[in-house]
Amino acid sequence: MKWLSRKVTCNSHGQDSSYFLGWQEYEKNPYDEFQNPNGIIQMGLAENQLSFHLSESWLSRNPDAAGFKRDGESIFKEIALFQDYHGLPAFKNALVGFMEKIRGHKVSFDPKKLVLTAGATSANETLIFCLAEPGEAFLLPTPYYPGFDRDLKWRTGVEIVPIHCSSSNGFRITQSALDDAYKQAQKSNLSVKGVLITNPSNPLGTTVSREELSLLINFVSAKEIHLISDEIYSGTVFDSPDFISIVEELKDKNLEDTDVWNRVHIVYSLSKDLGLPGFRVGAIYSNDEIVVAAATKMSSFGLVSSQTQYLLSAMLSDKMFTSNYIAENQKKLRERHDMLVLGLQEVGISCLKSNAGLFCWVDMRHLLSSNTFEAEMELWKKILYKVGLNVSPGSSCHCTEPGWFRVCFANMGEETLKLSLQRIKAFVESTMTSNNDVGAYSQRQSPRNSRRRSIPNWVLRLSSHDRESDR
Ligand SMILES: Cc1ncc(COP(=O)(O)O)c(C=O)c1O
């Protein structure tokens, strides 16, 4: 296809990963209680639908906000004409206030250092454009959010080098994993520009510990590189330990106004904490003035519409609403999380212990027919087509151990979650009793290298570096 650009025809978008393929299969046969009761239940979408009643009730109490009005008077023209890419000051003030509240007011944010973007997707890409050249690299702990292949690599030409984390320590980031990833990048002649973490983690649903944050700060300080902390799930922490933002750790280490202070950047969005992915509200927060200025110019390519800013500045300025929302939402998330974890436990499936997010990281290694990514795909297809659940296989998150799946619990009603648990139960019971090849893996571990050889092609295409590591 000579007449099209390489961007269009290259594979680095990641569209052919099972993460996106599962969505396509779901679209063809979506579950509906009445219209399609045997359809596929979507458990591969990290959406938060648990607290809409709160935002909807706020909207009915505050009709001016969505009705282009101030004190009853129309401000339609003012909003329709507003196009300053610095954003509405009232909205930026309200957004930093919300971010501070989520962090228990342990840190404060300056709205001048905030750049508005069309979601965290745009925020992450914009930051990468600001911090790295095509062909340079960012290190990312695995497993990671499958969308990062698109967001960080596709248009920027920047490479992702995985920091391999393992189940042996609950997928925590270690010094040796960081060092190995750095060495791997050097071996591949890639200059490392930074590390990107998600805190809380997608797909693990865990908060990053103080020790890990400290390790990361020391690492980026020593290497003189950047640290991006995607804190899009910061408001979803429903259990201890508390969420610690990277800025809090920097403050506690007395690193304000130092070099590293300017090289740490936060990404945020209202897609998860407020359940508004359709509104496309994201932000970059950086202490580096040049990054803020450049990202502000770039934000022209993905601004947040002025009516959205107007509506949300009113909603987020209502302190009673935000306090109540955060607390209620966390309570609901905890209930849902517990329901999924206990339901899976009943059929012998365990989850990584988690305290945040809209999903669980589920261990189905004992259901694999062998310790390979082919077996993971085989199991994923069974779960998708036979059980009727779209979950995300660990390989789509670049997990190096076959058999882990991300399962979302906040994008559906309680009855649907109950049904999905019933379906899993029936599946596990039937396979355990009738089919000896499934589950047989736990008795006969295959050699380590056979796992590497059997990684499916699309996994290899998504991150060429995954296969190069042989630890
Ligand atoms: C870690 C992470 N970053 C960024 C995004 C993109 O979010 P947004 O809808 O704000 O673009 C997601 C969405 O799932 C995510 O999980």
Automatic annotation (TrEMBL):
The reaction(s) this protein catalyses: S-adenosyl-L-methionine = 1-aminocyclopropane-1-carboxylate + S-methyl-5'-thioadenosine + H(+)
GO MF annotation list: 1-aminocyclopropane-1-carboxylate synthase activity; pyridoxal phosphate binding; transaminase activity
The UniProt record lists the keyword Lyase: yes
Sorted UniProt keywords: Ethylene biosynthesis, Fruit ripening, Lyase, Pyridoxal phosphate, S-adenosyl-L-methionine
GO biological process: ethylene biosynthetic process; fruit ripening
One matching Pfam family: Aminotran_1_2
Coiled coil: none
Occurrences of domain Aminotransferase class I/classII large (ranges): 41-424
Listed cofactors: pyridoxal 5'-phosphate
Enzyme class of the recorded protein, top EC level: lyase
Functional pathway: Alkene biosynthesis; ethylene biosynthesis via S-adenosyl-L-methionine; ethylene from S-adenosyl-L-methionine: step 1/2
Domain of life: Eukaryota
Family: Belongs to the class-I pyridoxal-phosphate-dependent aminotransferase family.
Name used for this protein in its record: 1-aminocyclopropane-1-carboxylate synthase
